[in-house]
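Technical annex B. To support the medicinal chemistry partners, we prepared a structural model of the target in complex with ribulose-5-phosphate, based solely on the information shown next.
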Amino acid sequence: MTPDQKKIVAAEAALDYIKPNTTIGVGTGSTVNHFIDLLAENFKGQIKAAVSSSVASSERMRHYGIPIIDLNEAGRLSIYVDGADESNHQLQLIKGGGGALTREKIIAAASDKFVCIADASKLVNVLGDFPLPVEVIPMAQNLVARQLKVLGCEIKLRAGFVTDNGNIILDLLGLQIEDALTLEHRINQITGVVCVGLFAQRPADVLILGEADGARKVFA
Ligand code: 5RP
């Protein structure tokens, strides 16, 4: 089974969490794209609305006739479905490989249940093999980079990439993240940082892993 087929297995299992005629939060990425396709197929005309974490996901859902509304209009959400680049066993995540980390973090914070869907390779013992994304206000690029240097990581500007919020991404390579909550707070304190793609303060509630023999649920 390919990694992409495993993503489909995870996305399919997340449908169990969807209740008709509710407003749901929907994230971004290739796993979520499968989820959107399956949602449209299995809940045709039954999704009241979605709050989306990216322009790309909004467009995909609109194509299927799923209404997109603003989070301010939606209020608190009962469920948020999104992917991840890495998860540890506490369901703390690295997200933002697709650059949508800030909106993803906002929707996760506004949701009662965060269902994370991924192929099985995303579960790791220690976060950090995947570069940690940091969304930064463009004029603060060098200011922020100088302060991130003390973490002892390599810092790479995501070349040619602009977030949906008009900002840049600095990817941090070579971290071994043992205390994700402390690092999340530390990076968020740097002036010019919009958001770091560490989801430790608000981890996932359940991680659905697509494996060759089906979906496996992991709880913290
Ligand atoms: C986007 C994300 C995605 O959830 C993450 O990159 C996983 O993507 P994929 O499902 O394509 O592996 O955080 O900002």
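Notes passed to the chemistry partners:
The helical segments are 3-14, 30-42, 55-63, 71-74, 101-109, 141-148, 180-188.
The chain has a mean pLDDT of 98.
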